[in-house]
Structure to design on (163 residues):
């Protein structure tokens, strides 16, 4: 199986969201399975292009009105997220749920099968927000990161897609 993590800011520009959707469709046709988190913005753009080839990891049942089946977040996911989050101890439990599910987005349901790559968009290409946790987990597991904020990353994808 081939997996990729498709995530990013809830506030990505519309043209980036449209590009993410095209990327997801392109990867769908190449038998890649999306791993994402059901949030508005980037997650939703990837999810709608991945059709049925997706694994959506929610922080709690019904998150963002999702009808996707909730998969319980294992304790190990909290441990992984706590190791990369700079102020884990200050987070409220529901915020920890959001960050812990990022471990599953990168490492899979059983946390033992890293994605082939991670595609995201973050403002100024920064490691910020919930996406930062996923990026740090990807870095710890040698998962290549493509941040569509960077023109070189967008161009690399365009060349691969031949568009």
């Amino acid at each position: 199986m081939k997996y990729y993590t498709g995530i990013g800011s809830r506030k990505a520009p519309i043209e980036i969201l449209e590009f993410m959707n095209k990327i997801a469709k392109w990867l769908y046709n190449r038998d890649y399975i999306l791993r994402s988190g059901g949030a508005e913005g980037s997650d939703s753009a990837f999810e709608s292009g991945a059709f049925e080839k997706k694994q959506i990891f929610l922080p709690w049942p019904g998150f963002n009105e999702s009808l996707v089946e909730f998969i319980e977040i294992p304790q190990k996911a909290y441990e992984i997220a706590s190791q990369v989050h700079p102020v884990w101890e200050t987070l409220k439990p529901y915020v920890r749920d959001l960050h812990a599910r990022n471990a599953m987005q990168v490492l899979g349901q059983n946390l033992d099968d890293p994605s082939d790559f991670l595609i995201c968009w973050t403002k100024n290409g920064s490691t910020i927000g919930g996406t930062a946790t996923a990026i740090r987990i990807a870095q710890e597991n040698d998962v290549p990161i493509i941040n569509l904020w960077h023109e070189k990353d967008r161009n690399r994808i365009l060349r691969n897609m031949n568009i």
Observations:
- The two ends are 26 Å apart (CA to CA).
- The mean pLDDT is 96.
- The longest helix spans residues 14-28.
